[in-house]
Amino acid sequence: MRIDKYISGTGLYPRRETARLIAAGRITINGTVCASGAAVEPGDKVAVDGVEVNPDRGERVYLALNKPAGITCTAAREVKDNIIDYVGYPSRIFAVGRLDKQSEGLILMTNDGSIVNRMMRAEHHQEKEYVVTVDKPVTADFLQEMSSGVEILGTRTRPCVTRQLSGQEFSIILTQGLNLQIRRMCKALGYRVLRLERIRIMHLTLSGLPRGEWRMLTPEEMAELHTRLEG
């Protein structure tokens, strides 16, 4: 089994984080620093920073965080205000996807690498809803252009659903995950984002969760999540 798949299967790290650890020479197989693409054979001892990785999946953790602005969605502990230190969970977890540093709202965190991979593969098929405040009044033409698709990053964004909430605030439902997508879309149309909050990922919502706090997903939420990902 490839080392990235092996580590991801333990639930300790997703594959992207595993790749970073391999590049840094922090993963060994039988005491030897491994290279990208290395194979793990039955009976091999795999360690991260000298600590042996237990292939036993153990207890799975799935939580929803209402991320405040100023927190960076990275597992790199050397980054100031990283999301791992902010949450302070007693065992290893990581964020599913990203919210940029200045954005806030719902983000999922887990120690289950397999569900991270499934959710990232489904990213372009599942709804994510945001509330956006911009620097000038929202117009009908602006909402129409946003919903029809905007040219950014050398491509045209997928059609989406928009709705005005107040003079300078609107909601948008995306089924895409381009880098800084909403901010870039608004900028292309002459608007600047002042505040961006994600309020929903698929069926999961903030549901009264105060900003800066987190809660475990319920069994019902997890059952629905698995059903949607399988679909």
Structural features, described:
By secondary structure, the chain is α+β, with helices and mostly antiparallel strands. It folds into 3 domains: 3-52, RNA-binding S4 domain (Structural Genomics Hypothetical 15.5 Kd Protein In mrcA-pckA Intergenic Region, Chain A); 66-123 and 207-230, 2-Layer Sandwich (Alpha-Beta Plaits); 128-201, Alpha-Beta Plaits (2-Layer Sandwich), CATH 3.30.70. Helices cover 26% and strands 27% of the residues. It is built from 7 helices and 15 strands. The protein has helices at 3-10, 15-23, 83-87, 113-121, 140-148, 181-188, 219-230; strands spanning 27-29, 32-33, 46-48, 51-52, 62-67, 94-96, 104-110, 128-134, 151-152, 155-156, 161-166, 169-174, 193-201, 204-205, 214-216. Strands 5, 6, 7, 8, 11, 12, 13, 14 and 15 form a 9-stranded mixed β-sheet that branches. A 4-stranded antiparallel β-sheet has the order 2-1-3-4.
